[in-house]
Amino acid sequence: MKTPFPSFPIHTLLLAVALTATSGIASAEESFDALVKRLTQEKPQFAERHEKLLEERYDLADKPADGVTMAKGKAVQGGVRVKLAKGSTWEKLAAMPPAEIKEQNLWPAGFYPLPHPHHEAGGMLFPQPQIDEIKKQTGRDITRFDLDYDLPQHLLPEFPAPMFLTTRPDLGDVSKGQLVTLTNYYDLFKEALNPKQLEGLRLLVTPFPQQQFNATDDRRSLQAHLGVTCFDCHANGHTNGATHTVGDIRPNEHRHRIDTPTLRGVNVQRLFGSQRALKTVEDFTEFEQRAAYFDGDIATAAKKGINPLERGSQVHPMAEFQELLDFPPAPKLTVFGKLDPAKASKAELRGEQIFHGKGQCATCHTPPYYTDNLMHNLQVERFFKEKMINGRLASADGPIKTFPLRGIKDSPPYLHDDRLMTLEDTVEFFNIVLGTQLVADEKADLVAFLRTL
Fold first, then answer.
1. What is the per-residue burial (b if ≥16 Cβ within 10 Å, else e) of 438-453?
2. Which pLDDT score, from 0 to 100, does residue 173 have?
3. Does residue 298 contact residue 12 with C-beta atoms inside 8 Å?
4. Going by C-beta distance under 8 Å and a sequence separation of 6 or more, which residues neighbour residue 7?
5. Is residue 123 a contact partner of residue 39, using CB atoms and an 8 Å limit?
6. Which of 169, 253, 369, 380 has its CA at 20 to 30 Å from residue 137's CA atom?
7. Is the dihedral of CA 233, 213, 40, 122 positive or negative?
8. Number of Cβ atoms within 10 Å of the Cβ of 108
9. Phi first, then psi: what are they for 77, rounded to 5°?
């Protein structure tokens, strides 16, 4: 007797049912109007809960670092923003063994995993400048009626970010200061790309249905929606700070908030996807719309309008364009990715020595692109006791990808889930986790070096 679902084995169908139960989808009995009313009423309480968490963890004030800017001129934020417990200091913490920090509950709140703004609901969420510009250019509205983005714009990458091509470094910013969308990509790139690359870019700025943005009655947009594009998060082939929750971990409280990584320099990387299970840019491009777009929920993907990409005519052109995206210029670096002593300051040169020596940074972040293309388990759970934080269970993160550090000052916030707001926060985090015992001057020099990359 034929099964009505010949392409899905029974264990896959049972998994689909389990996934649906954790995805926050409206029940069959709830109308769209009722869903909007309920979630709109709930929105303030979850916003207040998350704002309180951010206030407890961080100093989110606008405090630019003196004289340091991103590639197009936006000020880089400076200073340690993670708050310490009363009576604690960074020096005291760095001198304590992990077990003692754990026992005395001294792990800084800002070093715990950062939840999604509404972790139980999850889903794609965009900063306001991206929402405004997409609506202005295309008429497409990627606003969610149930929640808003959480981090202030001054702590995010510059918008719209400049775009650099490995094939045409002479052109500088090929986006010409514009957000690249379906409305302007052709005029901007028709003379810089070959037809295959141009088609790949077209697909990267073409909207396709997604879990929260689609035409069904359990969407999170007020109007029936065309969907989202790859470049809605990876704006101009970089990142705008958009967030999401990983689709490949269950139960829901274990799912990580996603920091949208830059696509700059993706051609030198070899691990992709939230759990780095994909080994090529082509694999990532092909499966992104089947996984992240639908929160890993195969049960609803077909109903919402999944868009399976064809490998030869779609995936390869998209991947080929992505692999043209270059890092921003780093005028103080030599061709080997090291500092040119004639161009670097004394502090930057000292920081480079710390990076390759006492700080142990180069163990994973090797020049010239400052990545080893491997996974490393930091075992941060050594420092704290498991606890629930706004729907997110703070527990072991497992292996984390070594991201390239080239252009790192242009890509805040940091770590895989946005928990670190500045490079200073990041240095303090790794000084404790790796036990490197850096003193204040060494940490400052290390930050100075990182800003040259």
1. beeebbebbbbbbbbb
2. 98
3. yes
4. none
5. no
6. 169
7. negative
8. 23
9. -75, 140
443, 433, 344, 447: which is closest to 384 by C-alpha?
433
Q: Which pairs from 40-43 meet CB under 8 Å and 24+ separation?
A: 40/145, 40/146, 42/146, 43/145, 43/146, 43/147
pLDDT value for 410? 98
Per-domain boundaries in the chain: 1-30+113-329, 61-112+331-453
35 touches 26 (CB < 8 A): yes
CATH code reported for the domain at 61-112+331-453: 1.10.760.10
Phi, psi of 67 (to 5 degrees): 75, 15
Residue 127 and residue 43: Cα distance in Å, rounded?
17
Closest C-alpha among 57, 50, 81 to residue 426: 81
DSSP state of 69: E
Residues of the chain with pLDDT under 50: 1-25
Cis peptide before 413 (omega within 30 of 0): yes
| Token pair in block for residue 290 | 């089947």
Residue-wise pLDDT tens digits, 288-311: 887 889 998 888 899 999 989 999
In degrees to the nearest 10, what's the CA dihedral of 233, 235, 239, 244?
Answer: -10
Please report the DSSP string for 104-161 in residue order.
Answer: TT-S-GGGSPPPPTTTTT---B--HHHHHHHHHHH------SS----S-GGGS--SSP
Q: What is the 3-state secondary structure (H, E, C) of 41-65?
A: HHHHHHHHHHHHHHHHHECCCCCEE
What confidence score (pLDDT) does residue 26 get?
57
SS3 299: helix
Residue 278 bridge partners (DSSP): 272
Say how far apart CA 128 and CA 348 lie, in whole Å. 35
Phi then psi dihedrals of residue 240, to 5 deg: -110, 5
CB atoms within 10 A of CB 31: 10
pLDDT at residue 29, rounded to an integer? 81
Q: What is the pTM of this model?
A: 0.92
425: helix, strand or coil: helix
In degrees and rounded to multiples of 5, residue 375 shows phi and psi of: -110, 145
SS3 268: helix
Residue 4 has phi, psi (to 5 degrees) of -70, -10
